[in-house]
């Protein structure tokens, strides 16, 4: 069993600026751990990318799974505090993370075109109004507010997945039932020929959270 990354370097005050790991974060960790052997032995990644890294807990955990330190672990977040904290979390857990403050992957394509072997996203998924999303004053609100169906940021990400994934690449996406996961799978299949499965699901209070896994037909 791989231990959850140590976040002792963070103070309660830090969580006023960055999303505190919660059940959704831990479900994504559990999904990566479930796939650990597959990731180590079959994917053997060169480049991993996490969108919306928050504290960096997920990418640090992925680094621990991969173990040998040969993969480049890139993280992005729209929140500059999150980018700084992500780097610190990696450092405090002896994992090298390269963190960039940007919207999704702005500025990184086309250099990362078809080169990401492991892609992760625990997105802002909570159903809100569009105004809550786009007029939100607090950076923390951007961590969870997802707009209509909780899908407004997710839907911006979907076309990028096909551009980012390598031939052997896999994409892990956290969703809740309200995000209409079946519809997301249909979009990915019909528009980008990406296969999918529900890797894990769990109830967190009244929220049904699930991890979808996507990969190319060619594998
Ligand atoms: C639900 S939190 C997940 C944080 C962390 N990955 C975890 O699992 O604990 C979503 C994260 O996505 C970031 N985010 C929201 N919109 C984004 C965007 N357009 N581009 C990049 N990051 C974004 C937020 O700042 C936040 O850190």
Automatic annotation (TrEMBL):
It holds the Pfam family MTS. One of its GO terms (molecular function) is S-adenosylmethionine-dependent methyltransferase activity. It comes from the Eukaryota. This is S-adenosyl-L-methionine-dependent methyltransferase. The keyword Lipoprotein does not apply. It comes from Rhizophagus irregularis. The keyword Transferase applies. One of its GO terms (biological process) is methylation. GO terms for cellular component: eRF1 methyltransferase complex; nucleus. Belongs to the eukaryotic/archaeal PrmC-related family. It is found in: Nucleus. Keywords: Methyltransferase, Nucleus, S-adenosyl-L-methionine, Transferase. Residues 47-143 form the Methyltransferase small domain.
């Amino acid at each position: 069993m791989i231990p959850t990354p140590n976040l002792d370097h963070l103070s309660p005050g830090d969580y006023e600026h960055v999303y505190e790991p919660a059940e959704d974060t831990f479900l994504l960790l559990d999904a990566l751990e479930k796939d650990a052997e597959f990731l180590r032995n079959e994917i053997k990644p060169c480049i991993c990318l996490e969108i919306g890294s928050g504290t960096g807990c997920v990418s640090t955990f992925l680094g621990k799974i991969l173990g040998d330190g040969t993969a480049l672990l890139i993280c992005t977040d729209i929140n500059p505090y999150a980018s700084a904290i992500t780097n610190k979390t990696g450092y405090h857990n002896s994992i090298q993370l390269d963190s960039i403050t940007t919207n999704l992957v702005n500025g990184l394509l086309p250099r990362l075109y078809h080169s990401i072997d492991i892609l992760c996203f625990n997105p802002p998924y909570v159903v809100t109004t569009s105004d809550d999303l786009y007029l939100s004053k607090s950076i923390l609100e951007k961590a969870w507010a997802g707009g209509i169906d909780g899908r407004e940021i997710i839907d911006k990400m979907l076309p990028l997945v096909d551009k980012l994934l390598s031939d052997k690449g896999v994409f892990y996406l956290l969703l809740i039932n309200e995000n209409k996961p079946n519809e997301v799978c249909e979009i990915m299949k019909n528009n980008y020929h990406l296969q999918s499965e529900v890797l894990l699901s769990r109830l967190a209070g009244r929220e049904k959270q699930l991890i979808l896994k996507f990969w190319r037909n060619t594998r």
